[in-house]
Amino acid sequence: MPASHPVELLRFNTCGSVDDGKSTLIGRLLYDSKSLMEDQIEALERSADLTGGGQINLANLTDGLRAEREQGITIDVAYRYFATPRRKFIVADTPGHVQYTRNMVTGASTANLSIVLVDARQGVIEQSRRHTYIASLLRIPHLVIAINKMDLVDWSESRFIEIRDEFETFLPRLDMKDVKFIPISALNGDNVVEPSKKTPWYVGPTLLGHLESLHIGSDWNLNGFRLPVQWVNRPNNPTDRELHDFRGLSGQIAGGIVKVGQKIMVLPSGFKSTVKQIWTYDGPVEEAFCPQSVTLVLEHDLDISRGDMIVGLDGLPGAGTELRATVCWMNPRPLQRGRKYFLKHTSQTVQVMVSALESRIDIRSYDAQPEPPELAMNDIGEVRLKTARPLIYDGYNINRLTGSFILIEQGTNATVAAGMLHPALEAVKPEYNDFAI
């Protein structure tokens, strides 16, 4: 019997202001798509009298912390998995409070799509703009503006159009290409999984219908092969004759396509070789692509270890110790010039110093405030960094996987910032160590 076609995975996050209905929306998606176990439904029913006044509180499916249920807010990022016959989903329910902006960045960092909820009564407020800006900053390819609680404005088409027009006045500044507006009621389920009869003026898809039909195959960067080496794969049993000389280089493809017989370069050494074999969990293949996890066997026995990057000879990455980046600061202790941290990028960690604070973003106006004295927690700004050794990277606008990093505080190992690298000024020279082919 032939193998069935694999079901595609979509990662998305919900964001917006407090009480816009993010957790309720995810609960409604899980409940109406029949993605809940019997024990989960029973737990909802048992907690109904405590938190929902006798009515099932769908927000409890994601708001797992006691403080979240008591206050009716989301504090931490909650991940939930569900599936339909057409697609698998991983959803991150991210907080709406300004003080938890860093949590929103964390939850949205791997998303293919971001859902920004807007309370139809409140309209576009600062947090709506803030989270839309962060979605654009993180280069999330697809955006849904879910105008929630339409039942509380009598399903007014004019109110829906008013909110949509206000968004469209500032969306061009954020370079968002794919934006969809959907009127919903998360509490009652209108236009979430099933179409609503209360919006005859809306002819678009339901939210779930849009999530199921969205094309995401082109979201991954398939130009310029990148494989950050995570570990060198040697046989556990050295007496096995077939595997005695096996030396594979394992990692997750961060960009592009690789084929057997393809010429590659290992960075930072610059040595070149040819791909001899490509192994996956299911066995050897002739080609692989982002974001598959693979093990490569090369024609030459080169000195390669964790932290090196194997790249194709076309569209080479940049390299350097002087970096420019946009960071979201996540630590109570502010970021200041001259501080030293560890920078974790793909599979390597290097020491880094903050050489300059170039600007801080004013979320209200999206304007850059030049040369701030520091970045406080949840601030977003542009910085200059100097690393102890050259970093091999792409600009975040080119490749989200090889253009992102985190900063780690020395001593505590606490993650203090998430960052997006600006394009490198110079690319690696393709003729370097050409003799190795």
Summarize the structure.
The chain is α+β, with helices and mostly antiparallel strands and 437 residues long. The chain has helices at 22-32, 38-51, 66-71, 101-108, 126-137, 157-170, 207-213, and strands at residues 9-16, 78-84, 87-93, 113-119, 142-148, 178-183, 226-228, 231-233, 248-252, 257-259, 263-267, 272-280, 283-285, 287-289, 293-298, 309-312, 318-329, 340-345, 348-362, 367-370, 380-393, 404-409, 415-421.
SS strand fraction: 25-35%
Helix fraction by DSSP (H/I, runs of at least 4):
10-25%
* SSE class: alpha+beta
Number of E strands = 23
Which CATH C-level class of the largest domain is it? Alpha Beta
- The coarse silhouette is globular
Whole-number count of domains? 3
Rg (C-alpha, Å): 24 Å
- N-to-C terminal Cα separation, in Å? 42 Å
* N-to-C SSE string, H for helix and E for strand: EHHHEEHEHEHEHEEEEEEEEEEEEEEEEE
CATH superfamily of the largest domain: P-loop containing nucleotide triphosphate hydrolases
Total of helices: 7
Q: Sketch the major β-sheet.
A: 8 strands, antiparallel
Mean pLDDT: 84
Task: Provide the CATH architecture of the largest domain.
Answer: 3-Layer(aba) Sandwich
CATH topology of the largest domain: Rossmann fold
Note poorly predicted spans: 63-76
